[in-house]
């Protein structure tokens, strides 16, 4: 498939899985059945892709970086919380640097 090394930066902590919000989509998008069907499958497709990525990581086919914690509020404007997230990302990157170099040199 042409890729030589796959490095993935995830924004969710390990073990995260999307949960389907079927009630909201089922009721709100009644006029749009194809959109509703696509949205209902979104979480399933995401979780399948994440499982595939985790399997690739176990086989050494992908290098995955992920935060140790996550801010659940996607629209967060709390500068202290954003600074903690940033520092967490730096910490994870620094601690993974030697393993990343080793993976890239294979």
Question: Can you characterise this structure?
Answer:
- The longest helix is centred in the C-terminal third of the chain and has 27 residues, at 79-105.
- The protein contains three helices and two strands; from the N terminus they run E-H-H-E-H.
- The mean pLDDT is 86.
- It is flat.
- Helices cover 57% and strands 6% of the residues.
- By secondary structure, it is mostly helical.
Evaluate the radius of gyration: 18 Å
Structural class: mainly alpha
User: Count of helices?
Assistant: 3
Mean pLDDT: 86
Coarse shape: flat
Quick structural gist:
The protein contains three helices and two strands. It is mainly alpha-helical and 106 residues long.
């Amino acid at each position: 498939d042409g890729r030589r090394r796959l490095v993935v930066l995830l924004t969710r902590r390990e073990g995260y899985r999307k949960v389907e919000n079927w009630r909201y989509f089922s009721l709100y998008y009644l006029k749009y059945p194809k959109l509703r069907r696509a949205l209902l499958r979104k979480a399933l497709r995401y979780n399948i892709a994440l499982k595939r990525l985790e399997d690739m990581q176990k086989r050494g086919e992908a290098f995955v970086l992920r935060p140790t914690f996550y801010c659940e509020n996607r629209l967060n404007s709390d500068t202290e919380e954003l600074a903690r997230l940033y520092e967490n990302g730096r910490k994870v990157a620094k601690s993974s640097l030697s393993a990343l170099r080793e993976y890239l040199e294979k």
